[in-house]
Write a structure and sequence with these properties.
The chain has a single domain, classed as putative 2-phosphosulfolactate phosphatase. The chain is 40% helix and 20% strand. A ten-stranded mixed β-sheet has the order 4-5-3-10-9-6-2-7-1-8, with helices on both faces. β4, α3 and β5 form a beta-alpha-beta unit.
Amino acid sequence: MRVDVAVLPPKRAPGRTCLVVDVLRATSSIAVLMGRGLERIYPAASIEAARALRAQLGDGPWLCGEVDALPPEGFDFGNSPSEFAESTLPGPRVVMATTNGTPALLACVGAPLVMAAAPLNASACVELAVEAGHDVLVVAAGRRGEAADDDTLAAALLAARLVEAGAEADDGAARAIERWERVRDDLAGAFRKTTHGRILVDLGFGHDLDFCAQTDRIEAVGVLRSDEAVPYLERHQR
């Protein structure tokens, strides 16, 4: 098994397991929601697509997501994993739309296995990837089409875990892991130095950076299924 890190989503689905990382904050939020027992999360490519998808699905799935890190008008929740950890959730299904994370997940539709991954559920994601036996691409969502240090560092953490489990690191993974090794003792502090991290702190979401930097808190994984007309994330419990 080989592992590599992509600092941006692929233009087409690779023939590898994809661990998709938008650590601040979509895939961290997905980890929390799956850990709390949600049945399905439907990722949408945009806010407008999310609203249309909820109307299409019927039966009252709720909406969560963000525009410029803030909840869109009419949505039930924003995109704060620490809020999801504490709030009463209105139902078992949700439609989610975020600027970077949900489009990154959808970019990987067609890969043999796609997971929403984060430090919060790193061990569970790595275990499932090893079980599947494919080569692995850890996909950093990036920010507005450019590489994002926060996602690259979290992707490197996952790549390092896979190497510890016996995978061989390709060049992209090896470079990322070198960066991760320099900040591994203070991942939250490293997040605060990134562009996205500073924006979240300025908006009052500094607590989410500390939350998202935790490792192995959750044993559930959102696995992307595309065997129906609408792709969705299904809970896999470790």
